[in-house]
Write a sequence for this structure.
């Protein structure tokens, strides 16, 4: 009977458990979890602020999940991996492993701003605890400053809308969601956010904090009661690099999620694996990717062979009812349709669809995603339909029949 | 396991499946009462391309990427059926982003919706299958 | 408008309280009767285009629709009926020959409905078909009149080729072209499953259907469409079509617009050309000529296939049958004046030919009288509507019956009688791919099988009631029949006594 140890307790770890159990019902699984709660849906904390969900509903799996999968859930933080003894150490115990999965995720990155130490009400926006403490602090009269117009910052803003007096978001970048959207699409999303009362200071950041205000690089003064930093995240890879596991930005893994050290796998936001879109190894810090990496790692840990070789960056983001779905990379020839409240951009390169941005009409977007992930050449597709409206009509009759008439 | 299969050779594009789906999922006993004057939002939809028509609904994949991608834990697979827990779903549309069939659509209530093979409806087989006049949609083991 | 106006024959009654504007009616009507009014979100109808095929009625999920005969009537009388007057108007409008489809609709006597069947009481026991074996199998073809033995005294097989049927029913000739690929496929699949035969009609045999060969009768008609050596050998029998009950004395005309793709290839004529079947076979002007064709076909098929000669029931049919029986044909098929058609001039359909009941009785009697009844089998058609019609036909002397209209009804036909338009909403009498696909042969064949299985059960029940356990015993057994409400002459021709006698 194998000993499996999983470091981390979020989605990649759950994926890993389900991956292991798909192949090995017997082995012992220990899960070391720093946060004192079972896996929950972190991206939902903004919806928690909006009161669209609660902590019970936010549980990623049912309460019986760990028991049913025979997982020993230990709320201890892993401090060290000893690869020669094949054991991991927490402050309280030593856990030997046959197969190990590092799914430590990432932590908020808070750059140093002059005077930030004087700010009392400053928060990150990553965990349930963050959301809870933020919620406790805000009131109807709060002015909130958010540094960072990425997904986390914007989601936080959406969550706070209606519960505070004002929200201002600043970002050094000249556009919001700079890692997900292009200029034009970002503008459209920004317009919608502004319509809902959120103020932006783009191409600008804090140069210095005073007690209740920030002096911006532009010289502007912003008064605020509450500060949220959402500049970015950094992968938690120290325990891996300390154990001489190869790391760059993240822990380097192959397509089986195996690290440079035998029997040690990694998955999730801490793992740097193959990105099909860029043809490099990179961190794709998105929820689905974390699950699929975790699942793949689990299957391989349990002795079966599984590859995950078609990861691509993709995002489903929405604010105040306007949704943007994106995938792949934005290069090559562009096909564009634009109206007041919608954008469609398709990116073609080497006779293939390589990326897209859809805002507004997002119906059937997954067909685009699958065309990208499966690298289907345009020559075998009806590209007119592909451009107009994604549907199974883009495939030829034979393929469509297979899709609708077979087991998939 | 029994699944819904669609044969476009026999699809007439009559859209009855959509209406039968909307009716079955309305929970209302009378079809007229359920659908009169309503804009339907069914869990199966007809796609048309020139003269070709066919119905698309959830394929209940062996390895459902929507379940794997769901960021709220609302999608799960139970007894082979990909189910959605409307209470958990917050309508982020990640499943729409990944479903290779376009089988998941926004619902009228902040969540997404998808075919669940009528397991929660009081019909003995999926309503779309039962009502298809030309056996273009069948429910069988393959 | 004005003098040319003819008020629509039907009215579309839509219960707007029930209509959910799903637009199924609109999508399913090839005649474009139903229209969706986007502005007012209601369905409208142009009933002038309605042929009352009931497709919309059948598919409406809320039963919001019905089609009724318009009560806007002309001032008719017993002589000048509404229909008669309107036909005059139509011809005055168009200057053309009136065309109709399916069988004679007029109120000529239906003798099947004037004949009653016997049942056993007391002196001879009836048979329960659920408990005792009951044979409905028949063999069609010439029966040997004497036993032959070889020098060693062993029986010599002198039986000529036969068609074996599990029950005395076959699907009669409907050509690929007049009906759709899917309709043909449904018939072929059902015939195979039932152990009976279907008939290609004069349209050739689509290459996909050669696999149903042992249940196929291939037809050779005056246009000789689709006839080649492989075709002749493909089926279990060959039928020479001399005439058709719905339109005796005239040929056929499939317009070039229907001669497309596979239909053109199967008929072996260029796309777009009119397929004109001449009124006569231009090489047949006598029984001797017919004999030549019969034997040509036998030669071509190495004497392995029985030859059927099909004629319309007309005056002197008994003499005609006698001639055919002497021509070398193995089977005579007689088609009564109520038989269906994909298109016929209305006047011909409604006024030419005679009822099949009389023709059958006359032919059977004549062939018996001449001692040649066993030279041929008799197959009759022309509106066999039920199993009791079959039983009555067999008792009147038929070896088997051809059914077509009943089969089409099973496939979904609602007898709107507008086959000639090619816009059959049920996917039967059309070549439009959008309409053809409405008939899924999986459903069609199942319904045909259901129908024939039901008939077979009923035939057995009726036979059992008469104390007969083999259909062969019933053939020509006119004592099992009695007439009701018909005159002496009719009883004489039918060869039956009146009820009570």
């Amino acid at each position: 009977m194998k000993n499996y140890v999983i470091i981390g307790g979020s989605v990649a770890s759950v994926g890993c458990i389900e991956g292991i159990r798909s192949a090995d019902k017997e082995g012992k699984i220990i899960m070391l979890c720093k946060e004192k709660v079972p896996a929950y849906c972190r991206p939902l904390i903004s919806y928690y602020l909006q009161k669209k969900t609660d902590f019970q509903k936010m549980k990623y799996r049912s309460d019986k999940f760990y028991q049913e999968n025979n997982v020993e859930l230990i709320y201890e933080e892993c401090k060290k991996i000893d690869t020669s003894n094949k054991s991991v150490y927490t402050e309280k115990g030593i856990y030997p492993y046959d197969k190990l999965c590092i799914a430590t995720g990432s932590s908020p990155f808070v750059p140093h701003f002059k005077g930030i130490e004087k700010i009392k009400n400053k928060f990150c926006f990553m965990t349930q605890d963050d959301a809870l403490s933020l919620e406790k602090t805000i009131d109807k009269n709060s002015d909130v400053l958010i540094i960072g117009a990425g997904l986390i910052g914007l989601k936080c803003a959406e969550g706070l809308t209606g519960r505070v007096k004002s929200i201002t978001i600043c970002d050094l970048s000249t556009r919001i969601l700079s890692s997900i959207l292009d200029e034009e699409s970002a503008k459209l999303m920004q317009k919608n956010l502004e319509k809902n009362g959120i103020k932006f200071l783009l191409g600008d950041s804090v140069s210095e904090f005073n007690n209740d205000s920030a002096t911006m690089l532009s010289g502007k003064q912003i008064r605020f009661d509450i500060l949220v930093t959402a500049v970015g995240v950094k992968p938690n890879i120290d325990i891996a690099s300390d154990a001489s596991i190869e790391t760059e930005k993240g822990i380097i893994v192959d397509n089986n999620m195996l690290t440079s050290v035998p029997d040690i796998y990694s998955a999730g936001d801490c793992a740097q694996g193959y990105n099909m879109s860029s043809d490099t190894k990179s961190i794709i810090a998105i929820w689905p990717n974390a699950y699929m990496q975790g699942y793949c790692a689990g299957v391989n840990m349990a002795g079966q062979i599984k590859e995950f070789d078609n990861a691509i960056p993709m995002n489903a983001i929405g604010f105040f009812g306007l949704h943007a779905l994106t995938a792949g990379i934005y290069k090559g020839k562009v096909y564009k349709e634009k109206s007041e409240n919608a954008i469609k951009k398709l990116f073609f390169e080497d006779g293939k669809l390589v990326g897209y941005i859809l805002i507004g009409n997002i119906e059937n977007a997954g067909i685009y995603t699958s065309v990208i992930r499966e690298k289907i050449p345009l020559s075998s597709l009806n590209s007119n339909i592909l451009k107009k409206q994604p549907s199974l009509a883009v495939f030829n009759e034979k393929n469509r029949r297979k899709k609708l008439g077979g087991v998939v | 396991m029994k699944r819904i299969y669609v044969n476009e050779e026999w699809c007439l594009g009559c859209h009855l499946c959509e209406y039968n789906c909307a009716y079955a999922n309305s929970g209302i006993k009378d079809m007229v009462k359920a659908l009169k004057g309503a804009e339907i939002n069914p869990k199966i939809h007809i796609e048309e391309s020139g003269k070709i028509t066919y119905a698309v609904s959830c394929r209940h994949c062996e390895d459902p990427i929507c379940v794997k991608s769901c960021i709220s834990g609302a999608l799960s697979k139970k007894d082979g059926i990909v189910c959605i827990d409307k209470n958990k779903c917050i309508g982020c549309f990640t499943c729409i982003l990944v479903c290779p069939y376009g089988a998941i659509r926004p619902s009228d209530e902040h969540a997404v919706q998808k075919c669940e093979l009528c397991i929660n409806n009081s019909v003995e087989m999926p309503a779309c299958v039962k009502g298809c006049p030309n056996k273009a949609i069948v429910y069988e083991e393959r | 408008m004005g003098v040319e106006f003819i008020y629509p024959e039907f009215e579309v009654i839509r219960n707007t309280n029930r209509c959910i504007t799903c637009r199924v009616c609109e999508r399913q009507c090839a005649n474009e009767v139903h229209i969706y009014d986007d502005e007012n979100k209601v369905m409208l109808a142009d009933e002038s285009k309605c042929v009352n095929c009931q497709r919309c009625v059948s598919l409406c999920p809320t039963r919001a629709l019905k089609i009724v005969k318009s009560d806007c009537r002309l001032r008719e009388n017993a002589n000048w009926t509404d229909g008669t007057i309107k036909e005059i108007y139509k011809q005055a409008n168009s200057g053309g020959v009136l065309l109709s489809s399916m069988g004679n609709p007029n109120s000529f006597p239906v003798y099947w409905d004037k004949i009653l069947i016997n049942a056993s009481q007391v002196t001879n026991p009836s048979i329960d078909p659920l408990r005792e074996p009951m044979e409905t199998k028949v063999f069609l073809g010439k029966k040997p009149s004497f036993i032959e033995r070889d020098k060693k005294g062993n029986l010599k097989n002198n039986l000529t080729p036969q068609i074996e049927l599990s029950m005395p029913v076959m699907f009669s000739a409907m050509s690929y072209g007049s009906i759709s690929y899917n309709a043909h496929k449904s018939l072929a699949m059902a015939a195979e499953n039932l152990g009976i035969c279907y008939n290609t009609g004069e349209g050739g045999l689509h290459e996909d259907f050669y696999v149903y060969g042992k249940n196929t009768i291939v037809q050779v008609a005056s246009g000789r469409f689709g006839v080649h050596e492989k075709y002749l050998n493909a089926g279990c029998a060959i039928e020479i079509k001399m005439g058709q009950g719905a339109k005796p004395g005239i040929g056929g005309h499939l317009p070039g617009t229907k001669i497309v793709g596979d239909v053109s290839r199967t008929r072996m004529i260029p796309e777009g050309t009119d397929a004109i079947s001449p009124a006569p076979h231009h090489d047949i002007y006598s029984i001797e000529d017919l004999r030549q064709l019969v034997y040509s076909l036998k030669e071509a098929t190495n004497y392995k296939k029985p030859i059927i000669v099909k004629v319309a029931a007309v005056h002197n049919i008994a003499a005609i049958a006698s001639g055919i029986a002497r021509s070398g044909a193995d089977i005579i098929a007689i088609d009564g004046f109520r038989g269906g058609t994909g298109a016929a001039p209305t006047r011909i359909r409604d006024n030419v030919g005679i009822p099949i009941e009389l023709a059958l009785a006359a032919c059977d009697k004549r062939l018996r009288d001449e001692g040649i009844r066993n030279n041929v089998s008799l197959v009759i058609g022309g509106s066999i509507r039920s199993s009791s019609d079959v039983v009555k036909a067999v008792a009147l002397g038929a070896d088997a019956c051809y059914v077509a209209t009943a089969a089409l009804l099973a496939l979904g036909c609602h007898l709107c009688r507008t086959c000639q338009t090619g816009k059959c909403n049920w996917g039967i009498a059309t070549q439009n791919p959008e309409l053809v696909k409405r008939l899924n042969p999986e459903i069609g064949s199942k319904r045909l099988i259901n129908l024939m299985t039901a008939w077979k059960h009923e035939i057995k029940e009726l036979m059992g009631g008469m104390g007969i356990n083999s259909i062969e015993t019933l053939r020509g057994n006119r004592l099992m029949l009695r007439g009701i409400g018909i005159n002496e002459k009719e009883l004489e021709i039918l060869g039956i006594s009146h009820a009570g006698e």
User: Anything to note?
Assistant: Residues 321-405 of chain A form a domain with the Enolase-like; domain 1 fold (CATH 3.30.390.30).
